[in-house]
Fold each of these.
Amino acid sequence: MSDPHDLPKEVFLDEVHSFEFWFQAVAGYLTERPNGHDPSIEEADLNSSEREALITTLCNYAIGETAALEASSGMIRFAPNRRAKIFLATQVVDEARHLEVLLYRLSELGVTHLEEVVQSRANRSLLAFRKRLLQFVDGHDWEAALFAQNVILESMEFSVFQAHVERADPITGDMLTGIIKDERRHMGFGENELGRRLAETPHIRARLQAVKKELDPLVLDTFEDTLEQVGVERSERPELGRSYLASVERLGFAL
Amino acid sequence: MTDPLEDARSPRDRAARQRFVLDDTGFDEVPKKYRRFYRKWGGVNDALARNEVLCPVCKVVIRSTRELRPGDRVYCMPCMSRLVVSVGEGGRLEALVAY
Amino acid sequence: MSGFLSAYSIQNWLESCPQGYLEDTQYGHAPGQTEPALVLDNPTLLADTIRTTVQLVVGERCALAASSGLINAAPDHASKAFLATQTLDEARHVEIFTQRLYDLGVKKSELESTLAEHANPNLVKFAEVLLEKVDKGDFIAGVVGQNIVLEGMAFSVFEMLQAAVSGVNPKFANTLSGTIADERRHVGFGENRIGSLIKQHPERKADVEKMQKEMAYHMLATFSTQFAQSGSAMQEGQRMAQAAEGNGAEAPAKWHGADLATATPEEMEGVLSDTVLKEFKVRLGRIGIEYQTPAAP
């Protein structure tokens, strides 16, 4: 294979948004992780409070992944081109897979009545975020939905999961490592797709700035709450928020 | 319109560059044929080689078969970004996203 | 696999598709396989093959919009997960049939205009009936329309096409065998999941039956116009297949009693319509829906 950096732009974009690319990319890290983690890893000895905190955290991850599943599937219908439609279809299955492995992990931790438990432990700000995101999707608002989901939600998840991996029990850590690999694609798609649209139609910037302003408190509240559960020291939290802030800054939004 | 990034490297410029043989470092998030062009980033203490640059979007190290210079175009396949190499603080090479 | 995961899980999908029958394929067929010269070098066959492939892309685009749109309306996680895998299956079908158009010589810049020029208006109406239900978030009607009516039609059309090309076009036959394997799961989900929902909501039957009748009408109209346009290409294909057979190629198969080597377009239209409608009747009967005979187009 010659250097992929020599590919013409259109060939590169067609390649990375295709099912074929997704198919061969995920094969690398999903084959060895039936049900989301390496089956040879043994369960750690969690005490009662650690277990409860982990269950609450995973319940909120499940809410976030459900929101992403519902939003990405709804967006296919009004995605502006075939490339975006096919990419979103791969994202839909990624999100459903994440939801499935998170629920499986909760069942490994002894949780029964999964749907009820997940709802009962949901962070209110995250639920409000989900509701707003789905309103954008229902309104076929491509830019706002893409911004809320693939930039804001995905960046937040990317940062939180990375922080959690460093502190997690081995099984949860292995599961999250697999999820992070997918988030890279989702986040990159959102930023690049939106970046191209902003370059072509700069007038949408003001509207997205308003969307950001509306969603920021919900994102930051969810972020704080989850990092607290995961055990991240308060002093380390601003550093972890940088991924989200850097993304929106690259797109040219005021912080 | 011609993509300005397409013409970033002249043949003469290319000829003068150091070449690198890339090996597979175990990065498994792209199809096999592309894997040796990427590697995991080891954090701030990870010294990048002259053919490497960090993707600011997804924090993966992008590798080329030749030495990288400011103005070069590279692709980050794990996050689907098009990037241009530039000189950052302290003279280190960094990549800027080109939407 | 643990009992926690049903057959509708992503895990099950991963084990059967990417790690199963799709492994080592490229755009649905073995790497290196190409369209045969007898199609590429014959203007009549080439034009007809492009027109047929356009209908496949149009149908799969509809299936992609419908399956993704139904995820939000799905009442449980298992259905959402299954529809997520179906969404990706449909996106893959859009991709591989679009790639086939490129392999047949359609330029990338002319894709949308080629689709617009050749898309059968009756197939577009068929899609509109279904997508109207999806837009309303009507899960029961949406799944019947998508997974029983649309997929049931696709299943038979793909089988017929596969029988027709198996001896002369291994590339396309391979592509179709993967899509048929996908459709099997989709129709299975439609029947099994909706069967229980119809029992819980018998008041929905009349509306669903009305939609089925309407979709079946547009489907028959699609078959009618497609076969009417394909007459000379079918004759040409049969003539070339007979010549190839004389040179040792495999003889065209029979499909549901029709001899593909000699059948006229009218005969094939009759066999296909009859096969699909019978399938509808049986499948709908199993889930408690009474099949409605459409008017003749």
Amino acid sequence: MARIANQIRTLRFLAGEMTQAELGDRIGVTRQTIAAIEQGKYSPTLESAFRIARVFGKPLEEVFQWEE
Amino acid sequence: MAFREKIAWLTLLAMLIAYSIYFGLILSRPEPPTMLGIIWLFGTISLAQLVVVIAGSIAIAVLSGREARARADERERAIARRGARAAYYVLMAGMILAGVVMPFSEPPWKIVNTALLALVIAEAVNNIVVLMSYRRGWHG
């Protein structure tokens, strides 16, 4: 089954241990939503995906990967 | 636990308790209830439930702080839509039963209470789907 994987946990670590709450505040979602995205339990909208990538200064495909 | 998940738990528990009492009282009566009796009992219990939910929501909001003042984010809105969609089908089935099928064979008090039960079950389904989505995750 296809799923969307992501590197958010790693990128948060590399961004000085940015917390889920801090990332959530910067893109306008709750800490719980960031946790759900990280765990692959929720796929964000395209808009939020781009916002997350922009926070880390990375292209979208370095943050999110389509896995089959 | 997210603020809106706590509110969904409060709403679900309050309504299950309130309407268990209502339907328990209605079904345990030896005589069929009058329309005025139904309105009075349902109104009283609904009002009590509303007061409990409002007071509980205020308490949860105070304890949750900033999170309670924030607008629902995209995932929370999507979860709410999923709950409402599931509840719609339950409500539709209940209304067809109460409004189309039962008038041919059942007395008014049974029709009214079936419609009320459909409303209660639909709202319970709404909250259960919302809670499952929060607990298991969107793709769970």
